[in-house]
Design goal:
Blueprint (H helix, E strand, L loop, with lengths): L3 H9 L1 H6 L5 E3 L2 E4 L11 E4 L4 E4 L5 E2 L1 H8 L4 H7 L9 H40 L2 H27 L1
Antiparallel strand pairs: 1-2, 2-3, 3-4, 4-5
Helix pairs in contact: 3-4, 5-6
Bound molecules: zinc ion.
The site of zinc ion has 8 residues, from loops.
Length: about 160
Amino acid sequence: MISQTELEAAKSRIVQIVGDRVPLKKRGATWWARCPFHNEHTPSFAVSETKQRWKCFSCGKSGDTLDFVRMFHQTDFRGAAAILGITGDDPSPQAVEQEEARKEAKKRRVELKAEWEQLAAGLRYIGRLINQTEPLERESHWFTAELMLNEGLDELEAELRK
Ligand SMILES: [Zn+2]
């Protein structure tokens, strides 16, 4: 399946894509050219940007951007898409889901890393306090440090289980 997203994008570039192949002149809201599909001296080939359609009022040929490229280059739909550089396929719903899961996991890893760093910074701070205090007070600081570490580990564990 050819990418619908890219197809729609190409269709909306009708003036540029047709204009690259036949000289267009704007009159009002419509672009005009001498029809490339039949011989004529006065332009009756019209391109509407808003409708994303073209029509020759002389020979009656009409279509959208892809039809134009297909007929102009005498190729099929795939050939026309290839000429416009549309080769990609739309990602399947599973692929989209996998990509989202991958992004979510990456985000979580970044968050966890930040939490670990916060925790480590807290412990380093407590470590410095401990070194500066009297031996008798050290016991309570160690106790705080241990509480912090356990709390942090519990939180991280809960995060990981989500
Ligand atoms: Zn024509």
